Amino acid sequence: MKQQILLALPFIGAALARPAAIHRKREVPGEHAHENILRQVDTLLALDNPDNIQASVFGLLGAAAGIKGAGNIKDADCLQQATADQAFTNAKAAGDVAGQTAALIYRALERNTGSVGLASVPCASIQAVNPEIAALQQHQDPAGDGAQDLNKQIAAELAVQIDSIGGDATQANEASTFAPGQIGDPTGAGNTCDDANDAIGCINSQNLRVDDLSADEIQSAVAAGSQGISGVAAAGNGTAVAAPAAASNSSVASSAASGQQAASADSSAQGQSSAASGAASAGGAASAGGASEFGGCDPTIVFGIPSDGRNEDAFEANDLTTFAHGSALNIKVISGFICSQLPNKCDASDAGVAACDAAAQKADSLQGQAAADAFNSALGL
Prior knowledge:
It comes from Lophiostoma macrostomum CBS 122681. By secondary structure, the protein is mainly α. It has helices spanning 2-8, 35-45, 63-66, 79-93, 97-107, 131-134, 147-164, 202-205, 215-224, 247-277, 288-291, 331-346, 350-363, 368-378, and strands at residues 301-304, 314-317.
């Protein structure tokens, strides 16, 4: 890896230039806190950079500053994901596991926001090419409501993805952020650092990093294949972040809590309607009757060798056009994503959303094909 970095450095050139104006004045500066990761990603980006992204640091800035170095990427809120995706692609082509790991860690780093506790905006306009990148989102300011729990889930998914490429899962903690600052702090400083000249990363050299997970929690996450981030793992594809506890899921949880029996009955009724219509499509989509509560969408899940290049059985949405997400080894990742997307992507009814959430709960404790069958059956599909 050291040799690859040294060989690539001469070609980075202007891509590494960081205009002083970018980080002179900002309420919560911290984009260079993980400088060690930025430098690895910049080296990878220099190998092939079709979108002309200027440097990885721009992806960690707020939208107004980040867009100045976004190259051909038009949505600044997707720049971090796009940078990580290209870096991962380049590292994968080179057989560079350490580089792939750095790209995954970069994708999970916290972005700057305008005040302590303010959540950064998720990427909604671009779908990551690599499923490992698509499964992740950025850390949120730990002072935000629910952000610390969310960050633990992000770190757990990061550990799973690092392990899936043959990397060291304990490195997931390298994406961890600072201790929470004081909301309302007029300086907006939080507990940050920002030093572009600290090759180790000032969050590391100054012992400011607060690790999200213990060694046992990382081991458990990897053993399970995923921590099952309901509505979180796919935030990079447009799901509301939960630090803000996944807004799209709040109504789902409320509906499911208040009426699981009704959801089950509704699901059964859908199943009868589906059977009566007998109009299943050649692609295995739900029948029109059974899908009516889901806005005409097909929320079913399949299990087997997925379409994204993973070489082992995994879960993925049957309809990848509507529910574009990389495969996962735990059904919770896919079911949570599908249920969270139903209100916005499909204009599904409240009953349909509640039924989806209830179906996900039934499938959560199961494995393999049995889990997919339980989820689809509970939906009446």
